[in-house]
From TrEMBL:
Biased composition (Polar residues): 214-223
Keyword Metal-binding: no
Domain (Bacterial type II secretion system protein E) ranges: 7-92
Lineage, opening ranks: Archaea, Methanobacteriati, Methanobacteriota, Stenosarchaea group, Methanomicrobia
The protein's name: Bacterial type II secretion system protein E domain-containing protein
Cellular component GO terms, alphabetical: plasma membrane
GO molecular function, one term: ATP hydrolysis activity
Keywords, in A-Z order: ATP-binding, Nucleotide-binding
Length: 292
């Protein structure tokens, strides 16, 4: 990684770990580091431990299994086992040959969380607990025992951070999965929906609708889009009815979003009136308007 002075036009080499530390000072946004393979991994784990990267800290590394990831991070790259405990989860993406065919597809094959409080004396296989695992017969991820029984430490941590029960957190995560699936399915037909601008706008609309629906629930105000979707008043934010309403509202917006962009491609994204701007303009109004 290198940088150049805009005044003196002189080049200055910057090490990856120096660049990473500089990124940490820029603010509390999420941090994503690809292809971890050197001294920068220690800075990455420092960010995980102190939590100064805001929402999340994510790194990618080559490894065929969660145990292999542990071996590489701890024994090859020199991160102390005590620091590795800052890892919430490891996600493995593998090449799968469905039915033993020549066709190769990418699948998330395993999601495991670090569950042991003391990992220094344990074997790598004893450190992780599966949250989800890939079933080749169904070509999908299935919930692990810890997730099915509501005993996942990671989900529990998320629930405490959100101030909700574990069941509510799981339902909320399932709702987000439905939204991602909808984007992916439509993106197969219209690839521009999978690009950063469209995905970002879809994510922003989810958060804005979530906040506005909760506000309407607290204040008792009525939502014009909720009436269109067949809902009269917003229920409690932890209920299944609320989550279903939220998905329906988002889906209505997404269908309008697709209709406006359909046949016009990515070039329209730059001039499309974002839902975020529209909702911010309506912030002082007791009802929420969705741009059609």
């Amino acid at each position: 990684m290198s940088s150049q002075s805009s005044v003196l036009k002189s080049g200055a080499e910057m090490s990856p770990e120096t660049a990473l530390r500089a990124a940490l000072r820029l603010g509390s946004s999420s941090l994503v580091l690809g292809e971890v393979r050197g001294p920068e991994v220690k800075v990455l784990y420092e960010a995980m431990q102190v939590g100064n990267a805001g929402n999340s800290v994510i790194g990618t590394i080559h490894g065929s299994s969660v145990e292999n990831v542990y071996e590489r991070v701890v024994h090859t790259l020199g991160v102390p086992p005590a620091s590795f405990k800052a890892t919430d989860a490891v996600i493995i993406c593998s090449g799968i040959r469905p039915g033993g065919s020549m066709r190769k597809v990418k699948r998330v094959s395993r999601i495991a969380e670090v569950t042991c409080a003391c990992i220094e004396e344990l074997e790598p296989s004893e450190i992780f607990t599966d949250i989800m695992y890939y079933d080749p017969s169904q070509d999908c991820l299935l919930a692990g025992e810890a997730l099915e029984q509501g005993q996942s430490e990671l989900i529990g941590k998320i629930a405490r951070k959100w101030g909700v029960t574990i069941d509510t957190a799981i339902k909320n995560i399932e709702l987000r999965a439905r939204i991602k699936e909808k984007i992916a399915v439509e993106g197969v037909k219209m690839p521009f929906l999978l690009e950063a601008e469209a995905v970002s706008e879809a994510n922003n609309m989810f958060w804005l609708l979530s906040d506005s629906t909760k506000t309407n629930s607290r204040t008792g105000t009525e939502n014009r889009t909720a009436r269109r979707a067949g809902f009269e008043n917003s229920p409690d934010s932890g209920s299944e009815v609320y989550l279903e309403e939220l998905y329906t509202l988002w889906e209505l917006w997404f269908e309008d979003f697709i209709r406006e962009l359909s046949g016009k491609g990515k070039q329209r994204l730059g001039v499309h009136l974002s839902g975020e701007k529209a909702l911010s303009e309506e912030k002082q109004s007791p009802e929420t308007k969705i741009i059609a």
